[in-house]
Amino acid sequence: MKKVLVLISICVLSISLNAQDLVPFEENQKYGYKDKSGKLVIPCKYDEVWSFSGELARVKINNKNGFIDKTGKEVIPCKYEDVMNFHSSFICVKINGKFGIINKTGKEIIPSIYEEINDSQNGVFLVKLNGKYGFVKNGKEITPCKYDKAFDFYNERAAVCLNKKYGFVDQKGKVVIALKYDFAQRFSEKLAFVILNKKYGFIDKTGKEILPFKFDYAMSFSSGLACVGINGKYGFIDKTGKEIIPCQFDKPTSFFVNRAKVMKDGRNFFIDRTGKEIK
């Protein structure tokens, strides 16, 4: 008898949970939501709706966007020209042509005053104001919008450019690697390639030169190897600068799943991580 009761309870719980899964529904060119039993739960009054993500769903009415919960309550009012879910608990919103950030209760985190906002790393957002870039954390500019170019954080560093010179800032907005390079790529595997006087080299997060400025071309490290070029030929080095695969190929390339497609003497073929051709 107990087993029967347990099975009945499980079935009831399963039906209840399934009934709570809401799916978009159209009626007379308006949209709402039904549960999986077909019962209309949220009336068809919206011009456009999206599937629920967690407890919220994006909806649109009169060309304005907001979010509702599974009872149909507008948790975030339909007043935004556009909204974009970031991977974290933040939502990027657009109002009066400007972007800001709110959380999933609708609380303003960053005012809608910026021309651009990029997704954050550890709560630090890349923003653009009056054509210049800076960084915002906890609603405050930790780096003023003064840079001509700026990039997202990787390995706790972000490349920035001012007056055609590149360097790096940390997540407090402090310049930790001076703006002296002709170009800087984001960090990958704790190293970044930078260009100085038309030569490529590699630095670490402190700005220390790890591999000298002797390459005519370089790509970021991936799985311990970086493609580099000298005198129009390309090969691979490790993080000590040791040439693992000599510069002999006609085009730059990178490894994918332990093999790379290369060209030599007009012939295309694949090599493994030792440089041996894969037949």
Distance, first to last CA: 66 Å
Q: Would you identify the regions where 5 or more consecutive residues have pLDDT less than 50?
A: 1-19
Radius of gyration: 26 Å
Percentage of residues in strands = over 45%
- Give a quick account of the main beta sheet: strands, pairing sense, barrel closure: 4 strands, antiparallel
Write out the strand line-up for the largest beta sheet, numbering strands in chain order.
4-5-6-7
How many β-strands, per DSSP?
Answer: 30
Shape: extended
Number of helices: 1
The structure class reads mainly beta
Which percent bin holds the helix content?
A: under 10%
If you average the pLDDT, what whole number results?
91
Structure description:
The structure is a single chain. The protein has 279 residues and is mainly beta. Helix content is 7%, strand content 55%. The strands form eight sheets. It has a four-stranded antiparallel β-sheet with strand order 4-5-6-7, with no helix packed on it. It has a four-stranded antiparallel β-sheet with strand order 8-9-10-11, with no helix packed on it. It has a four-stranded antiparallel β-sheet with strand order 12-13-14-15, with no helix packed on it. The longest helix is centred in the first third of the chain and has 19 residues, at 2-20. The relative contact order is 0.05.
Brief description of this entry?
The chain is mainly beta and 279 residues long. 7% of the residues lie in helices and 55% in strands.
Features:
mainly beta; disordered N terminus; 279 residues; 55% strand
